[in-house]
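Entry 14. Structure prediction run on the chain below.
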Amino acid sequence: MLCVALAILCSCFESTPILLFLNKRDLFTTKIQKVEIAAQPAFQDYDGKPNDFEDGVRYFEEKFTSQNTNGQVGYIGVFSD
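Output returned:
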């Protein structure tokens, strides 16, 4: 679902800067302790450590930025608790 949403979002706003706001760090940290990212069908390509916050965030940042095919739009990542 995330991949489809990102593809649609990027195609509709090809030249619009996008801000990826990742909030709820504590919830994400708790969730990846219980459920592995790679165990989810949409994220089977995840190859980071199963319960690692930094690897998980890096994966989702890369997943997000990989949708930018024209190379003109920058990326800003914002993290909060």
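DSSP finds three helices and two strands in the chain.
Filed with the rest of this week's runs.
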